[in-house]
Write a structure and sequence with these properties.
Elements (H helix, E strand, L loop, with lengths): L10 H8 L3 H9 L4 E3 L11 E6 L5 E6 L1
Antiparallel strand pairs: 1-2, 2-3
Amino acid sequence: MFEDVDWSNRGRYMRERHGIDPALANEALADPNRLVLDPDPAGPTTLTSAGIGRGKYERVGRSAAQ
């Protein structure tokens, strides 16, 4: 899960709405201790998942992926 996230549809949204760059989101998704919500309870459909983890700068990032 989350090995290959396509941010072409949600990258801008993540920056504008949450202040999280897709690069930081990818770091959070790569965290081996991340929390995975599948399906994402806040997602628009059951086709989305969310991951909560830490990037290399220790900032907590929440990332939603389709």
